[in-house]
Amino acid sequence: MANYLEMNREELTAEKAKLNEQYKKFLAMNLKLNMARGKPGPHQMDLAMGLLQMNDYTTDAGTDARNYGDLEGLHEARVLFADVFGVKPEEVFVGGNSSLQLMYNLINIGYVFGFPESPCPWSQVEKRKFLCPVPGYDRHFAITEEYGFELISVPMTPNGPDMDIVEKLVAEDDTIKGIWCVPQYSNPDGYTYSDETIDRMAKMKTAAPDFKIFWDEAYIVHHLTEEIIETPVLLNESKKYGTENRVFMFTSTSKITFPGAGVSAIACSVDSMKYICKRFSVMIISYDKMNQLRHVRFLKNKEGVLAHMAKHRRRLIPCFDAVKTAFSEELTPCGDIAHWTNPKGGYFISLYVMPGCAKRVAQLCKECGLTLTGAGSAYPYHKDPQDSHLRIAPTYPSLDEVETASDLLCVCVKLAVIEKLLAEKAE
Ligand code: PMP
């Protein structure tokens, strides 16, 4: 295989014909593969079936978990999540089966009522804005888009969002009300914010007194290597600067036990806790404490969580390796037509193809039975200005399927790049 960027028209045309033959073989396989969403595979969920054996409903305090009460969560569940977050139990709110719903609820509270520091509810801020590190998580962006925020892209780096840009924007503009962050093994690049980024997040001056950091620790224990990466805890760091009310941390067991039937949590200051409990108490009497108790009995503590995640890791490593091996064997020899991330945790690999090709790659894959997350979906308004990024989720399919999907994906990348190069040469 030769470098596509050095090929002339005839060579590219011959290579395209070869690739078309390969593509046809995949077409004939009538594939139905999906590397779109970050979902655990059935084998991973099987690992948590023991949870259903935990049918005890008497809490450590002797109360009955079947009944109403404890809006902020069962004490033992708060202790478990405090251990995972690295904060105090009184700073933890344990909710229902979705952290995304908690994020939505908090944006809604800001919109309808504001926070204690708010000059007015966010709904009354005409040109309200939210910072979105890109590429990022489409469902985060969708929440703030739904509530009428203008989504401002901030470029990601391997150390987190570009903090020079973040600091400048938030210092100047009091209509910027917050930022979305996935600080550990970010969705989709798999980057972990550096200690310096976390410190700057805690201490930056914000023009808005009610600026909030939505710090989504969705992948806090989702290590893909033996290295257990731990970073400073934003809530604790922010106390050094008196900014703890700007921090809302989130996590859930969606990718530890069962997505959709797990337990979610918030970590925030004690002041914020009082405020959100007051608001939430109008919405709900208490969350599913039987499920909270089952999770505590099953996972026990952070050590138990990490031991459980090690079982996930054994299944996930081969799937991630299969994608990266295909990329380096098939794409690297073609020259600088694509690059990709090498995450140490989380659920995704970012593939960056030659600008102007991502949509075409996704389309070629789809026509051949491989669904990817729509090109551009990791950017506000689904618009990747470079049309370069594709988010690859290797967790759900079986290893065989991941291997087939990766091979097909490489053929589609090469085809899309050649089409683009040929089109450029024709101009
Ligand atoms: N945050 C991030 C960054 C995610 O990737 C996901 C799931 N893909 C979620 C939140 C959703 O979490 P939950 O199931 O707790 O709502």
Indicate the CATH topology of the largest domain. Answer: Aspartate Aminotransferase, domain 2
**In the residues, how many domains can be counted?**
2
CATH architecture of the largest domain: 3-Layer(aba) Sandwich
Q: For the terminal residues, how far apart are their CA atoms?
A: 25 Å
Radius of gyration equals 23 Å
Ligand inventory reads: 4'-deoxy-4'-aminopyridoxal-5'-phosphate
- Multimeric organization: single chain
Q: How would a crystallographer describe the biggest sheet?
A: 8 strands, mixed
Q: Largest sheet, order of strands side by side? A: 2-9-8-7-6-3-4-5
Helix content: 40-55%
Beta-sheet strand percentage?
5-15%
Low-confidence stretches: none
Q: Sum up the overall morphology in one term.
A: globular
Any idea of the CATH class of the largest domain?
Answer: Alpha Beta
Total beta strands = 13
Element pattern in H and E:
HEHHEHEHEEHEHEHEEHHHEEHEEH
How many helices in DSSP terms? 13
What is this entry, summarized?
Residues 2-29 form a coiled coil. By secondary structure, the protein is of the alpha/beta class. The protein is built from 13 helices and 13 strands.
